[in-house]
Design brief:
Length: about 220
């Protein structure tokens, strides 16, 4: 008798004419002279992407931007543990793509150092930029926005948010200072994901937004 074991499957051949039986766990399959087709499925690691979209308009100068930078790093560390790759976009008068989704904290740290506050608040352009990158994948995708006020054109931002949500992109938004609570609720995927906090809690709120990330999808392959 010859046994071959591999990945929990046992193939047993006994005698020249008795054929092969297949044991999987406690189940034994006996072909009885007929062909047996066995397929195996494996679960890949989840694929999930989140973009942090950070307001770097002039009103963010000083303590608020420094809080945002700290919140980004704390958020990213927890997001990595939840199998998310984290990307970075900043926006003021225009939107800038700073980092593709990554699992490397060093890459995010390097880009964060380049962030400085200036200009106005073109949130619509930033949402569109994140959407354009995320729509390439069918897997779990999220945009987390941190801002201290209203965008230049609120309706444009809402329109871009609606377009992203149609592509199954979740939106979480955290506002402080002059942010409008009703606007935050409309832009977020659900009202509970649009939050306004005190300036002193801005960094912590960005960090804790990782708790609002949806569970990543697992991809099953044969």
């Amino acid at each position: 008798m010859v046994n071959q074991k591999k990945k929990g499957v046992e193939l047993t051949k006994s005698g020249p004419s008795s054929g092969i039986s297949i044991t999987i766990g406690n189940t034994v399959l006996k072909p009885e002279g007929h062909p047996v087709i066995v397929s195996f499925e494996r679960q890949e690691k989840p694929i999930a992407h989140v973009y942090l979209v950070i307001d770097t308009s002039g009103s963010m100068a000083g303590g608020k931007l420094e809080q945002a930078k700290k919140g980004i790093l704390d958020f990213a560390e927890d997001a990595f543990r939840k199998e998310f790759a984290v990307g970075l976009i900043s926006f003021n008068t225009t939107a800038s793509h700073m980092c593709e989704p990554t699992h490397e904290i060093e890459l995010l740290e390097h880009q964060i150092q380049k962030m400085h506050a200036t200009g106005s608040t073109n949130m619509a352009a930033a949402i569109k930029l994140a959407h354009d990158h995320l729509k390439r994948t069918r897997d779990t995708k999220v945009i987390v926005i941190a801002t201290d006020g209203m965008p230049d054109k609120a309706q444009d931002a809402l329109n871009e948010g609606a377009s992203a949500k149609k592509d199954k992109i979740d939106i979480i938004i955290i506002g402080t200072d002059d942010a409008n609570q009703e606007f935050l609720k409309k832009l977020a995927t659900t009202a509970e994901l649009g939050k306004k906090v005190n300036r002193e809690a801005f960094s912590q709120a960005i960090s804790l937004a990782s708790n609002l990330l949806p569970p990543p999808k697992y991809v099953t392959k044969r």
